[in-house]
Structures are given as structure tokens and as C-alpha cells.
Design brief:
The complex is a heterodimer of chains A (321) and B (518).
Chain A lengths: L1 H21 L2 H5 L5 E5 L6 H17 L3 E5 L6 H9 L6 E7 L4 H4 L12 E9 L1 E6 L7 H6 L4 E4 L2 H15 L3 E4 L5 H9 L5 E5 H7 L5 E7 L13 H4 L9 E7 L5 H15 L2 H9 L7 E2 H17 L1 H4 L4
Parallel strand pairs in A: 1-2, 1-3, 6-7, 6-8
Antiparallel strand pairs in A: 3-10, 4-10, 4-11, 5-8, 5-9
Helix pairs in contact in A: 3-11
Chain B lengths: L17 H13 L3 H17 L4 H9 L8 H26 L11 H9 L3 H26 L3 H6 L3 H12 L1 H4 L5 H15 L2 E2 L6 E2 L13 H20 L15 H10 L1 H15 L5 H16 L12 H24 L5 H12 L6 H6 L1 H30 L6 H18 L4 H19 L5 H23 L6 H4 L1 H33 L1
Antiparallel strand pairs in B: 1-2
Helix pairs in contact in B: 1-18, 2-3, 2-4, 2-18, 3-4, 3-16, 4-5, 4-6, 4-15, 4-18, 5-6, 6-12, 6-13, 6-15, 6-18, 8-21, 8-23, 10-21, 11-19, 11-20, 13-14, 13-15, 14-15, 15-18, 19-20
Classes of the chains: A alpha/beta (321), B mainly alpha (518).
């Protein structure tokens, strides 16, 4: 009995050894100490929060520290550039702002990266948009806005939000003026509440958390999902604008170009495992920060559809105020 | 942990009233690690405040991962400890070395450093400490009073009012020109030009970036401040040699208590500074730096001896320091009520709240009142604690001004450069600090005041963005600035603040003329 157990142990060890030997040396070594995750924005924002919680959970799972490194500036370009130019040894990963990194490509601005060469791991969340108005606004649906027969004013924040706003106006056929310059999404929503403009196109999660005081009313969910904070709001498909559901902020993760395939597969597996971790899921539920785990293929498809929309409306998006 | 961790003894997720919440806060403070977390936060805050460039946002960002394992109330004690101590820490170097530790301390150098040069460093530190403590506590009391009407206060301010506030802040330039008005205006013009570098949030596109991606976010303020004050000061000190205080015999460090007494004796200045700090701090987008400058310029304009400011008037230290600590209370109002950070520190603090499973916004006041009261308690205690700690070593700190600059320079220079680097881990920030160090030195050398440049750099973009937003909202109708009650009131305040010195001057000359004839 004892010897049989020994034989089994030896066989198991040999099989494990063979399995280890069959993977390339680089993958075996990974992780070689602390891993860095580059965040292309300052501490405190949405991308930073998502990246930090992922870093913690994924780090605990793989048994090393994943150290967040904020490289803000240049509208996220500095961080994206640093991530793209990082050494492809699997010790550096990054969170990317999609569509923030697509826009310079579409606008022909020659950004310091090639979207096709980034080693996509997947995404944590896909934050679609909603159109909201003040709670005492006379408008209750997108049809009402269209029937108003006048220029609709919006408050807007950030280049991605502005692009989504203009694409929406193009798809729906609204005459729009966007009041820009707000320092954040919440500021833009506050602008709607105090009457700076009639409406705002804003990420659903931002509107949901802002609206715990009930200051806002949903007009159109640019999504097909049910949103508890806006249960009666019309959805994009039902309103006849299904393409609007392709717009949104994606919390995407990727590796610099040239990471060894086997290493990249291990990181990818660790990334997927972290996304399913109960700690991350419970954080998501309690903080109302939604998770939409997406693998590399699904992310790639979303990048393609967003690129198509941005290209189609390139001229409208590029308009000056 | 990411999910809000309950403090022992608290019923999970039960909505609690204000008094009950305050009870929980004291409970958290008294429990095991409570005092230690608060003390730790205060010490970290003081150190980060003292070192130019580091400041509250950096301290909080570094602390976020450490709070993962703490229950939420302990995390608030730690964070509140930091935020309450940073403003006073920043005043120490402003007074002793002419180098504001954090941006809002820039107004303290006006009179703090001249006091040091006159050998009154101890008195200045004492006055700053007392004013900071009182301001910190008053700010929290004002916040408590304002919480029920926080929403209404915030909805009162729109872009036209923000524009007027920025212009009111710019009026502080008039009192910061040190008697060199034309040179002050030139410096302010340069500051405005620098303020407009970067991505234009209103119409999109970049301005004056010369194809450099780094400049997209504009010229960063903190590295510029480090350059303008710390590095240029290092060059000046090195070239001058000797010690900061010319006459060692004059450093009467026992006068720390005189400073404390001065703050209590001049309680109207402390009250006014605190009220300005809390009120301006509560307005998102304008921030504490404007509050400090406004508190200072108000003190000058109300004083019977405006000419003594800038030459070591203790009121010039008391007013901005009271305002600096009170603003923390004010800045919490938009942060808690709408999730809109009232300062850079609050922006990082928002991230901390989210990581602990809370969504900033009106619901936080309903669902997590104990978190809010614990933070307020920590802020108030920490601002007093930081001052007391500093007073205990003020004697030794003031002696820095007696150290030969040949020993000081090799210490301050690397600390300043590391401070510039640590902000974003960027060498570009260090380069900006060095360039501004050169600009600052040349300005001192050729007798141009530096503060107008700083004020204009701070307020340029706030003023511009809100001016353009106002006109977009009103469809190009410029009367929007005068048809809104609050905006018009602010405009009249601007006119008044610019006319008061003139009226007083005319009255004084008439009085002297009368006296002469009689």
C-alpha cells in the first residue's frame, strides 16, 4: 500500500515536472517579483479605482504585489505611451481607456501606439451612457426632445463623453449644442440640475450614483441592460437606435507588444480568475461599480465597432464649439 | 477589504442619526487602534505638508492601499489625520524658508518669511499654529451647520458666479505687488499666459503646447511653485551666504507664546479667515488657494495699517492660516453632497470612499453618517494636534534660520527636487521646477514680485473656462453676469475691494490736510 502510494506520488511529480518543462522557460518564471500596472490618470478616478482593486485581488491570487503606477497627463496619452513602450517581460500591464485611445487613431493624430499590437487581456467593465434631464424637465423621452423643434443643450465632460453626445445627436437627428469645460461628469450633471443646459449624456453608473437624491430623470438608456436606478427609462433598441448601445467607456487591460505567448496566457488566466474572485464581485456589488468581464476577443470586437462609429461621425465629433 | 468593513459595536448598514453617529465616531477613536491611526495620520500629514511638493493628495494616494485591511471608521481616522495636519505642515516651510509646503500656503509667505528675517520665526509659527487650530475646528463646526442646506448652497453657484469669484481672487494681486504695481501686473500677465497652456476643455484642442504631450495638462502648479519659491530661494540663499536670520541674537524663540496670544487677541481676523476658508472651500473648482489669498487681502484691506503687511505683520500669517484649515471642512460639502471634489485632496479621498464600498453623493449622509462624523472628528482633532506637536518643536525649528546656508542648501535642494518628482513620478516635473526656479530667481533679482504670477496661474483657467461657459449657457448674452443676484453681489464686492484702499487713502490725505490747516 505504502509503496503504491509512493509510486503514485512519483508519477504525479514526474507528470507535474513534465508539464512544467513543456512550458517555455519565460512562462515558468512569471511572475519574477512585483508586477506593475500603469494607470493613465491621476489617483481617485474611475480607471484608478478599477485598476487598484484588480491589482489587489489579482496580486493576492498570484502571490506577488501588483503595484499601481499612475502616469497621468496628455489626456491619457502619457500613460498609454509608457505602457506601450514598457519592457515586454510580463512584469508590466496597464489599464486603457477605450474609446479614449481610439479617438487619436481615428482623428489621424499619429498616437504613440498601434492598437492592433497591444496584447489585450480583456476588460473589467463596459460603462454605457444614459441621457438624463432634471427631474422637473418637461421632456420625458427622446421623442419629446426630437419634437421640441429647437436646439437641445447638453452639459458634457471629456472627449469621450463629447464624442458620444455628438454621435447620439447624429443618430437621433437632433440639433445639439454641448456646453463643455466641466471638470468632471458629476459637475456636468450638477449643471443639468441647476439649469445650465436641458440634458446630459453621461455614463450610467455616474448618473445612478449621482441620482440617489432623485434630482435627475432618465430619457434614454443607450444600452439594452436593465438599470435599477432608472427602471422605466426607454432603451436604445426600443427607441430605434440600437447602435447607441455600442458606445461606452471600457475599462480595458492589456500588455505591451511582444510579450511571450505563454506568459501572456498565464497573465490572461490570472486576469480572468481575478474577475471572478468573490472579493472583487462583492466590492462591485457594494460600491455599485459594475463588472462586465470581457475576454480579449469580445474586447477586440467592441473596439472594432467603436472605431467604426467614431470613424462614421469623425467630422461631427471634430467640430469646434 | 473593498467592502465597507463594519466597526465593532455598530449595527451593520443601519441608518443612524447625527448624535448616534458622533457616538460611534468617539467609540472608534477610543477603541484599540483609533488614537494610533489618528496620530499616525497626523504625523504623516505634517511631514508630507512640510516637504514642498508632497502634500495631502500624495499622502492619501500612498495611504489608500494601506487602508484595505482597516475597518472604514479607522480608515477615516487615518485619512482625516492626514488632511487635518497637511495645511499647518505646509506653513512651517513657508514661514521659515519662504517656501510654501503646499500650494494653499503660498499666501503665508507674504508676512511669514519677513517675520523670520526679523528674527520673529517663533512668533510666526505660534500664530500660524493657533490660527490653524482654531480655523480647523471652526471649519468643522461651520460644516456641521451647513450640512442640512449643503445642496442648496451648491446649487446657488453657477459659472457666472465662479467667474466673479475668480476675478475677486485676482484682486488679491493688488495687495501682493509689494508696492511695485506695474511690475506686479507684468508678473500677473505672465501668470495668465502660463495658465492658458494646455488642452482647452471648452472648445477642444491644445494651446501653446508646441507638440509636447506633457504640456497637454497645462504647466503643473505644484512643481512650478517648488521652482518659484524653493529653488529660487535656494539660489538666493546660496549666493548671499550666512544665515536666514541676519542677527542670531534676535531669534527670540520664546516668542512662540506671543504668536499664540496674537492669534487669540486678533480673533476677528481668525473668524473672518475661517469663514472665508470654509465658504470658498465649499465652492467646487475654486478651491483653498483662492481662499487663502482672499483671507489675506481682506485682512490687508480692513487693517488700519495696510502698509505694514508684507513686512512682517502677524495678521498676514493668521488670516491665511485660519482660512487654510477651515477650508478642509468646507471642501467636504460638495464632496459629500454631490461627489464633486472641492480640492485635489478630496479627489483622492473620493477614491478612498469608493474603495471602501461607499458612493459619494447625498446618500452618504443618510447611509454612512458615522463615516462623515468620524472624518470630521479626525479633521478637527488633527488640526489641533498638528499645531501642538509643532509648537513643541518650534524652538528647534526656528533655529533652522540660524544654520549656515552652506549646510541648509544641500538638504533643501534634493528634498525639493524629490518633492517635484514624487508628485507624478515624472522627470518632466523636475525640469519644470528647475525652469521655474530660474524664473523665480530672475524675478527676485530684478525686483518683480512672484505672488501675482502664482495667483494668476491658479486662477487663469478657472476664470477663462467659467467666462466661456457662462456665455455658452446664456447664448452669448454678457448681461448674464449682472442679472443674477449672487453674481451681481460678487461684482459689487470686487468693485468695493478695489475702491476701499483708494477711499481710505483719500480720507487720510484729507484728514492730514485738515490737521495741517488747523
Amino acid at each position: 500500500m505504502q509503496s503504491q502510494r509512493n509510486i503514485m506520488r512519483t508519477t504525479a511529480a514526474a507528470m507535474l515536472g513534465a508539464a512544467l518543462l513543456s512550458t517555455p522557460a519565460a512562462a515558468q518564471d512569471w511572475p519574477k517579483g512585483d508586477v506593475e500596472v500603469i494607470i493613465p490618470s491621476s489617483p481617485g478616478g474611475g480607471f484608478d479605482t478599477y485598476a487598484r482593486i484588480l491589482a489587489k485581488v489579482m496580486g493576492e491570487n498570484i502571490g506577488v504585489q501588483i503595484v499601481p503606477k499612475n502616469i497621468s497627463g496628455g489626456g491619457g496619452m502619457r500613460g498609454a505611451q509608457a505602457a506601450y513602450a514598457a519592457r515586454p517581460d510580463g512584469q508590466t500591464m496597464a489599464i486603457f481607456n477605450v474609446p479614449g485611445i481610439i479617438e487619436p487613431v481615428v482623428n489621424g493624430e499619429n498616437p504613440p501606439y498601434d492598437l492592433d499590437k497591444i496584447g489585450w487581456l480583456g476588460a473589467m467593465a463596459f460603462n454605457q451612457y444614459i441621457i438624463v434631464v432634471a427631474k422637473d424637465s418637461p421632456y420625458n423621452s427622446i421623442a419629446d426632445l426630437k419634437a421640441a423643434g429647437k436646439t437641445i443643450t447638453f452639459t458634457g465632460y471629456g472627449s469621450s463623453g463629447l464624442a458620444a453626445n455628438r454621435i447620439m445627436c447624429g443618430e437621433v437627428g437632433l440639433e445639439c449644442q454641448v456646453i463643455t469645460g466641466y471638470p468632471g461628469n458629476n459637475d456636468a450633471l450638477l449643471g443639468v440640475v441647476r439649469g445650465d443646459a436641458m440634458a446630459s449624456v453621461t455614463p450610467i453608473t455616474t448618473a445612478a450614483s449621482f441620482n440617489s437624491g432623485g434630482d435627475l430623470k432618465g430619457i434614454l438608456l443607450m444600452s439594452e441592460r436593465d438599470v435599477t436606478a432608472f427602471p422605466d427609462t426607454e432603451k436604445a433598441g426600443a427607441a430605434g437606435y440600437p447602435d447607441l448601445a455600442n458606445l461606452g467607456l471600457v475599462r480595458a487591460f492589456g500588455l505591451p507588444p511582444g510579450v511571450d505567448g505563454a506568459v501572456s496566457a498565464r497573465i490572461s488566466a490570472a486576469f480572468s480568475e481575478a474577475l471572478a474572485d468573490p472579493e472583487l464581485v462583492s466590492w462591485s456589488e457594494s460600491s455599485e461599480s459594475p463588472l462586465d468581464p470581457m475576454d480579449a476577443d469580445a474586447l477586440q470586437a467592441l473596439i472594432t465597432s467603436q472605431t467604426a462609429l467614431l470613424t462614421q461621425y469623425k467630422d461631427i465629433i471634430g467640430q469646434s464649439n | 477589504m473593498a467592502v465597507r468593513q463594519e466597526t465593532p459595536g455598530r449595527t451593520p448598514w443601519k441608518r443612524v442619526g447625527m448624535l448616534e453617529a458622533i457616538g460611534f465616531s468617539f467609540g472608534a477613536l477610543a477603541s484599540g487602534g483609533g488614537v494610533i491611526y489618528l496620530l499616525l495620520g497626523t504625523i504623516v500629514g505634517l511631514i508630507f505638508g512640510i516637504i514642498p511638493g508632497l502634500g495631502g493628495p500624495t499622502a492619501l494616494a500612498l495611504l489608500i492601499p494601506l487602508t484595505f485591511g482597516l475597518d472604514t471608521l479607522s480608515a477615516m481616522l487615518l485619512a482625516g489625520g492626514i488632511m487635518g495636519a497637511v495645511p499647518f505642515g505646509g506653513s512651517v516651510t513657508a514661514i521659515l524658508l519662504n517656501t510654501p509646503g503646499t500650494a494653499p500656503n503660498a499666501a503665508t509667505v507674504f508676512d511669514g518669511y519677513p517675520m523670520t528675517k526679523l528674527g520673529r520665526a517663533g512668533e510666526a509659527l505660534g500664530a500660524a499654529a493657533a490660527a490653524s487650530s482654531i480655523g480647523g475646528v471652526l471649519g468643522i463646526l461651520l460644516l456641521l451647520a451647513a450640512l442640512p442646506v449643503a445642496r442648496e448652497i451648491i446649487l446657488f453657484f453657477s459659472p457666472p458666479e465662479f467667474f466673479m469669484l475668480a476675478v475677486l481672487g485676482l484682486c488679491a494681486i493688488a495687495v501682493s505687488t509689494e508696492g511695485k504695481f506695474l511690475r506686479g501686473l507684468i508678473a500677473a500677465g505672465l501668470g495668465l499666459m502660463i495658465a492658458f497652456v494646455g488642452y482647452d476643455d471648452v472648445s477642444g484642442g491644445t494651446r501653446f503646447t508646441f507638440g509636447v504631450a506633457y504640456l497637454w495638462d497645462g504647466v503643473p502648479l505644484v512643481p512650478s511653485l517648488i521652482g518659484l519659491f524653493a529653488i529660487s530661494q535656494i539660489v538666493t540663499l546660496y549666493l548671499a551666504g550666512g544665515t536666514i536670520t541676519d542677527d542670531a541674537a534676535q531669534v527670540r524663540v520664546t516668542r512662540v507664546s506671543d504668536g499664540v496670544r496674537a492669534a487669540f487677541r486678533n480673533w476677528p481676523t481668525v473668524l473672518r479667515g475661517s469663514a472665508i476658508g470654509a465658504a470658498i472651500g465649499a465652492i467646487p473648482g475654486v478651491g483653498g488657494t483662492v481662499a487663502a489669498f482672499l483671507a489675506y487681502s481682506t485682512a490687508v484691506q480692513i487693517s488700519d495699517e495696510p502698509e505694514t503687511f508684507g513686512k512682517g505683520n502677524v495678521l498676514g500669517v493668521i488670516a491665511p492660516e485660519a482660512s487654510n484649515n477651515a477650508r478642509e471642512g468646507g471642501a467636504l460639502i460638495p464632496t459629500l453632497a454631490f461627489g464633486i471634489p472641492g480640492s485635489a485632496e478630496m479627489a483622492v479621498f473620493l477614491g478612498l470612499l469608493v474603495l471602501h464600498g461607499m458612493q459619494p453623493g447625498p446618500s452618504i449622509l443618510l447611509d454612512h453618517m458615522d463615516v462623515v462624523t468620524t472624518l470630521m472628528l479626525a479633521l478637527a482633532i488633527s488640526s489641533v494636534l498638528a499645531s501642538v506637536m509643532c509648537l513643541m518643536v518650534a524652538r528647534q525649528l526656528a533655529r533652522i534660520t540660524l544654520v549656515d546656508v552652506n549646510y541648509l542648501v544641500p538638504v533643501i535642494l534634493p528634498v525639493s527636487l524629490v518633492g517635484a518628482y514624487a508628485l507624478n513620478n515624472s522627470m518632466y516635473d523636475v525640469i519644470v521646477a528647475v525652469i521655474f526656479g530660474l524664473i523665480g530667481y530672475l524675478m527676485t533679482r530684478f525686483d518683480y514680485p512672484r505672488l501675482p504670477l502664482v495667483i494668476a496661474m491658479f486662477l487663469g483657467s478657472v476664470m477663462e473656462v467659467n467666462f466661456r461657459q457662462s456665455l455658452m449657457i446664456s447664448q452669448g448674452d454678457w448681461t448674464t453676469f449682472f442679472t443674477r443676484g449672487l453674481s451681481l453681489t460678487l461684482f459689487l464686492l470686487i468693485v468695493l475691494s478695489l475702491c476701499v484702499p483708494l477711499i481710505r487713502y483719500l480720507m487720510r490725505t484729507r484728514k492730514t490736510a485738515r490737521e495741517r490747516t488747523s
